[in-house]
Amino acid sequence: MIGRLRAALHREGLSFFSRRIQSLARRVAGYERVLVYGVPSGAPRPPADDSGASCVELATPAEALAADAPWDAETLAARMGEGARLFAVRDDGAHTSFGWVTTAPSIWVGEVRRTLAVPRPLSWIWDCVTPDAFRGRGYYPRLLHQLREEFGDGSVIIYCRAQNAPSRRGITKAGFVEVASVMRIAGFVSVRSRGAAPERVGLGGKEPP
Q: Is residue 209 part of a domain?
């Protein structure tokens, strides 16, 4: 036990304690923190992708299931019926990373159990999944690069849990910058916007009954 603790401290340093403090706070006080990222208009363009991979839209549940999307038919039909669009990176015939996009002035964020809102409709990227077999090969940031091209800088926005380090790395690698931080503690939710925000992020409605 002591040996494993020493090894963890040597490997992780101070982050060993910070992660465990955050985990304890989430359990005791209902703490959750979500980071919101956007791409300001005029931001540097990502380098051209010459890998041969492409971004495709899976427009129907049948197409998504044929592409081995990691959701069942009922979930796919419900999300698409509400206007969400599913995109994927396709490389050498395989679909390697998936992400949903909803274009609206607000979106429900289950992690903080509130709606986030912006002054005008933006394309919210959410619930992105890269299957285990394709992780660590750059497909997630490639998906986000392609969605920047599809919807345009200044019009795309994405969020993830603050403790999700792999997702944060992929997001920033794709050229997104943090525009807001949303924190929930014991039912109270607050938003702190960043100076680089292309749009001000605020709170919308509470959890529906």
A: no
In tens digits, the chain (209 residues) has pLDDT values of 455 545 544 555 555 556 555 555 555 557 899 999 998 777 776 666 666 778 999 999 999 999 999 999 999 999 999 999 999 999 989 999 999 999 999 999 988 889 999 989 999 999 999 999 999 999 999 999 999 989 988 899 999 999 999 999 999 999 999 999 999 988 788 888 876 555 688 887 655 44
The reply to whether 117 falls in a domain is: yes
Cα–Cα distances (Å) from 128 to 31, 57, 89, 161, 196, in that order, read 23, 14, 11, 12, 24
- 147 and 180 together in one domain: yes
Closest CA to 41 of 172, 193, 175, 185: 175
Structural domain range at position 9: 1-29
